[in-house]
């Protein structure tokens, strides 16, 4: 089956490029998200084989790292919240280890020595998201796919309730199946009837990267602090994120956003004060009404959804690719993605249940 990918900019340079690459299926487990937690765990289980296959096909390492994640509490209030989270996640089957301040500092000596406590999650990992998108692009082209960069889809054409073509400005591309995977821009594709439009909004995040000595990095684990997360790369970069802002597509870096990142990083890891800033950027997470993805068939025949992943797009890459491809080839909707049909929003509206606002600090 021939596959064409149309990208409004450079492939992989949207939310996937702006992300931190955390594979946090365990520490992301929260009350009221049992279906999403199960999907996250299923995708995390696929990651080792997915990474190995992608590296074979592309020749590009995605730098899958399995040191685990450390969540830190810096004061008494943080510790109370961390204890609640720890107890809940343990009850959900997440493997966690409670750490005293001494034990936390034995794992990461450069953490704030005044920290109150910490939790170690051995099953929450990371990959380098920018290497990932490069590998995906190379593997796609090597397998015969056609990539059309800087070619925005302006509309989807439908006839009698089924997809027939894509509009690319003044050009037209006929197709029988269209996968809507436009991230935060998914809701802006014209041409679809109202019932087929997807409720996706951009959730702005400001991030920055600092430069550590690769031979002597300040941290080796992913660190979740109360205000920011810290993700170390093998080349010495230290990713610091991320603000959560309902600002539409405003791409400005702001003094307040950058200050919040630097202060939050400094409170958890005082040694960052001496590190040079390598890069600062803004990304737009694709958030749905309940901040869970929309996967599988759309409301018109031939439209397939793979969008709304919010803060878990990198983590959910393997399960999204597997289940969406299976649906296109066989018509089978995998059990794992049935809770994430876009029709859930209409059903909730009919039942009079408004979706929760689940905007969070960590993303």
Summarize this entry quickly.
The protein is built from eight helices and 18 strands. By secondary structure, the chain is α+β, with helices and mostly antiparallel strands.
Provide the descriptors you would attach to this structure in a database record.
8-stranded mixed β-sheet, single chain, alpha+beta, globular, 3-stranded antiparallel β-sheet, D-Amino Acid Oxidase, Chain A, domain 2, FAD/NAD(P)-binding domain, 2 domains, disordered C terminus, 8 helices, 363 residues, 23% strand
Topology overview:
Layout: E1 4-6, H1 15-18, E2 22-23, H2 34-58, E3 69-73, H3 76-91, E4 97-99, H4 101-107, E5 117-121, E6 125-126, H5 129-142, E7 146-148, E8 155-159, E9 162-168, E10 171-174, E11 178-180, E12 201-211, E13 222-224, E14 229-232, E15 237-241, H6 255-268, E16 277-287, E17 294-297, E18 303-307, H7 317-330, H8 343-351
Parallel strand pairs: 1-7, 3-13, 11-18
Antiparallel strand pairs: 2-6, 3-5, 4-5, 8-9, 9-10, 12-15, 12-16, 13-14, 14-15, 17-18
Any idea what the radius of gyration is? Answer: 21 Å
Topology order in helix (H) and strand (E) letters: EHEHEHEHEEHEEEEEEEEEHEEEHH
Distance between the termini: 35 Å
Taken together, the total number of domains comes to: 2
Continuous helix count = 8
CATH topology of the largest domain: FAD/NAD(P)-binding domain
The overall pLDDT, averaged over residues, is 95
What share of residues is helical? 25-40%
Query: What is the level-2 CATH architecture name of the largest domain?
Result: 3-Layer(bba) Sandwich
Strand order of the largest sheet: 4-5-3-13-14-15-12-16
The shape, in one word, is globular
The description of the largest β-sheet is: 8 strands, mixed
Strand percentage, roughly? 15-25%
By CATH's scheme, which homologous superfamily of the largest domain applies? FAD/NAD(P)-binding domain
Class from secondary-structure proportions: alpha+beta
Residue stretches low in confidence (pLDDT < 50, at least 5 long) are 357-363
């Amino acid at each position: 089956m021939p596959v064409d990918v149309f990208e409004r900019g450079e492939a992989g340079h949207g939310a996937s490029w702006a992300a931190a690459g955390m594979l946090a299926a365990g520490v992301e487990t929260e009350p009221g998200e049992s279906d999403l937690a199960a999907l996250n765990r299923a995708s995390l289980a696929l990651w080792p084989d997915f990474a190995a296959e992608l590296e074979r096909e592309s020749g590009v390492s995605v730098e899958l790292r399995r040191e685990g994640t450390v969540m830190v509490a810096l004061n008494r209030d943080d510790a109370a919240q961390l204890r609640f989270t720890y107890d809940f996640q343990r009850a959900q089957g997440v493997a966690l280890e409670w750490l005293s301040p001494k034990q936390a500092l034995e794992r990461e000596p450069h953490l704030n020595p005044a920290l109150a406590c910490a939790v170690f999650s051995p099953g929450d990992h990371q990959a380098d998201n920018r290497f990932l998108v490069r590998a995906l692009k190379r593997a796609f082209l090597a397998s015969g796919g056609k990539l059309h960069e800087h070619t925005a889809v302006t509309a989807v054409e439908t006839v009698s309730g089924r997809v027939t073509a894509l509009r690319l400005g003044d050009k037209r591309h006929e197709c029988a199946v269209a996968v809507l995977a436009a991230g935060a821009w998914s809701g802006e594709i014209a041409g679809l009837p109202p019932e087929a439009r997807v409720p996706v909004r951009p959730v702005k995040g400001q991030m920055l990267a600092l430069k550590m000595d690769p031979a002597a990095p300040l941290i080796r684990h992913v660190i979740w602090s109360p205000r920011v997360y810290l993700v170390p790369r093998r080349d010495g970069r230290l990713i610091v994120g991320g603000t959560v802002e309902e600002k539409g597509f405003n791409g400005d870096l702001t003094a307040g956003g950058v200050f919040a990142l630097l202060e939050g990083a400094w409170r958890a890891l005082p040694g960052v004060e001496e590190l040079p800033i390598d890069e600062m950027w803004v990304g737009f997470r694709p958030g749905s009404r309940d901040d869970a993805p929309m996967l599988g068939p759309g409301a018109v025949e031939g439209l397939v959804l793979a969008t709304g992943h919010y803060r878990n797009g990198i983590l959910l890459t393997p399960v999204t690719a597997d289940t969406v491809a299976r649906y296109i080839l066989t018509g089978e909707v995998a059990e794992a993605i049935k809770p994430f049909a876009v029709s859930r929003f209409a059903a909730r509206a009919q039942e009079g249940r408004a979706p929760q606002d689940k905007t969070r600090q960590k993303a």
